[in-house]
Amino acid sequence: MPTLTLRLAAPRFALLCCLTATLSSCGNGAGGPGGKPGGMGGPIEVGYLVVDEQTVSLDTELTGRINAVKSAEVRPQVDGLIVARPFEEGSRVNAGQALYQIDPAPYQAAFDSARAHAASAEAAAHVAHQRAERFARLVQTGAVSRDANDEVQSLAAQADSAVGVARAQVETARINLDYTKVRAPISGRIGRSLVTPGALVTARQSTPIAVIQDYAEVYVDLTQSAAQLLALRRAETAGRLTRASATLPVTLLLEDGSTYAHEGKLEFTEVTVDAGTGAVTVRARFPNPEGLLLPGTYARARISTATVAHALLVPQTAVGRTPSGAATLTLVNEKAEIEIRPVVLEAAHGGDWIVASGLHPHERVVVEGLAKLRPGLPVKPVPAGSPAAAPTAPSQH
């Protein structure tokens, strides 16, 4: 029996020794009191940036459409049949150039009739004036009464009026005859013709027969939200930024992502808000010598809308969010402890945020090693970019 007892106790003694050795090795590992910083026994290394005041230009990227500086819809001003179309679709036309010919025969006849009527009126007026001159002499000698003379003088004046009416009718007929040639109201590039020879057109019809656009220069009509404009004005009133002048350069971004070679100028900002979209229109003018910018094309433009004189910039990746969505920054205080501070953001600037309030110059903002940090946690701060700093991770507080 004693021998059996000793055999059973030996395995228990060996197991106890193994457990003791394992606990001893765990206590002396890299994460123990004697381990490297960053383990359970040492401060976590975090990378920080020192924020300083600087002057930055606040850029705004807006979207909109390209419009021609001059655009005219061609409509006939007299009724008739189209008998000719002496222009080439898509070509450049000059102001005053004939685009369509309406059948001139009825208008030529009306013009000839008006001229004949005017000649008749002038002949009648000539006879009336001769008679009036004779009566004017006879009334001096008493050969005719004053009443008879007054009547003859009145008839001469009426004849003059009839001549004036006849001449006006001649001018009207001449204008209508000239309107049978439908001319280009402006110089520019004409689009497709919406009528063909043989079509019947009417004066001042609602549907144009062609459209001419002059886009040697173009407008870019952009939309800016009223809320964004209000935020800029509030910041300006508070003295946090200075709004730019109305003649700022504008950079245009084409649909393929490239930058347009020519710089534009800001023309104006609309004074009313569109009730349907809640946005205001911002208009810029661009030269278009190569004809690359076509009216109706979607466009994006970048405008330097304001200047912030004493801006504090922090990387966007350094900004955390509370469950309610409020912005926070993780700072290292003078005691080398973590501080979570709420801040108010002004606007984005490239990959950074402009901080409006909650941050002061020369403070240390944690930008690397943000994961699992809590207020009051002692850390080992190192300049951002140091190989020892932990990887960056957005904070959630």
Walkthrough of the structure:
This protein has helices at residues 2-27, 105-141, 146-179, 226-237, and strands at 44-50, 53-74, 80-84, 92-93, 98-102, 181-183, 188-190, 200-201, 210-225, 242-243, 249-253, 264-269, 279-287, 298-315, 319-321, 327-332, 338-342, 344-349, 352-357, 364-368, 379-383. The chain is α+β, with helices and mostly antiparallel strands and 397 residues long. Among the domains are: 44-56 and 311-383, conserved putative lor/sdh protein from methanococcus maripaludis s2 fold; 104-179, Orthogonal Bundle (Helix Hairpins), CATH 1.10.287.470. The strands form 3 sheets. Strands 1, 15, 16, 17, 20 and 21 form a 6-stranded mixed β-sheet that branches. β15 and β16 form a beta hairpin.
CATH third-tier fold name of the domain at 44-56 and 311-383: conserved putative lor/sdh protein from methanococcus maripaludis s2 fold
Largest sheet: 6 strands, mixed
Structural class label: alpha+beta
Would you tell me the overall average pLDDT? 83
- The low-confidence parts are 1-39
- CATH uppermost class of the domain at 44-56 and 311-383: Mainly Beta
How many helix segments? 4
In short:
By secondary structure, the chain is α+β, with helices and mostly antiparallel strands. The chain has four helices and 21 strands.
